[in-house]
Design brief:
- The protein is of the alpha+beta class.
- Among the domains are: 79 residues, no CATH class; 82 residues.
- The strands form seven sheets. Strands 1-28-27-26 form a four-stranded antiparallel beta sheet, with no helix packed on it.
- The protein starts with a helix and ends in a 5-residue tail after the last strand.
- About 9% of the residues have low confidence.
- This is DUF5050 domain-containing protein.
Length: 386
Amino acid sequence: MHEHLRKSLDQSIPEQVRLKDEQKRAIVAEAHRRLENESPSRKPTLKPLIATVAVVGLAVFLGVPYIQNEIGEQAIEELAHADALQKVSIPGENLTTLINAIYVDETKEMIYSDGKRIYAFDTESSTKEILVDGDENISGYEVAANESWIVWKQEDVEGYFVLNRLNGEIRNIPDELHGMRIEGDQLIYTSVSWGDVWLTRLDLTTLEQTRLYDKLQKMYGQYAFGEGKLVLGDPYTENDPNQVPFSVYDLQTNQKIGSFVFPYESVYNLTVSENRVFAELYNEGDEMATLGYVDLTDGKLYTVETPDFVTYAVYRDVLALSTPETSSNTVELFKIKNNKTHALPVLAHIQERLVRPRFTPEGILVVNVENAGFYSMYVVDANKLD
């Protein structure tokens, strides 16, 4: 009977409230106790169905303090983070167009391409501006942008284009590039020519190119940069193939900061944050990744206790995880404290599936909404989640 009463209690409380099992048991038990002790000298005259209704009614009454407390806590948490969350909807665009949208911290714009043009959408005024208008096919995967520069690749056109947003000048650079990213006035990309692969830095103000490192001599595909640092995977050592070595360089001076090791067999998705190098770590037989980081101050590896996740993004101590659900996954936010994750309720009320979490250099999280009817994005200011 108690199980039936608990189900009835579940149906009677607000949908957004989640009472713990021990709270439910306490409410139902107290309801029984009060009914039984209310008139001990009288014989019970209530029929089972009426008695059940009476118990449930009293249980709901007794549960009010729990419900008020639960609603109060949720309201306080949501209110505290309300100014950190913004929904961005761009009419007429779809997920394919927006999945690689770039948020520019300084101008609060979303930069994206629909395949023929490159747009800037102002997230404050909801106005859209055409930055590049052309008939050629522009892949959203090959666009890099910040407040001063737009770099893009057009199909069937040799090289790539650089737009100076300050004066409107467009330059064509006759070079092949892959995986480009902008940091300040520097463009970092992978160059490929006649079987040779290397990392290149281009000064966008002077167009001076610097060949950084031959990637074929490094761990191919494993590199990241941020906060003025460049992280490159080094070749596996013959003596210990179960470790992944990497080196860190100063992006401006090209000087080596140090050599470090991830003591795991496989490493993916390198990220630089607060003098730490984060990564998804795997050993043979692992079904899910372990999230860990090497602190560049002491050179030690630290692992973070997380729920199962598919991918991650991190900014300082704010962590976004794509966590598995019944048949899919969605993005949740956490705070890292003492290398443990503590859930943040910022995105919890969103019913749509959220995909592709990424942080900007200044801590703005961007996630895309995957929905059959419309396509939007959410931006979260991690600096307001203290």
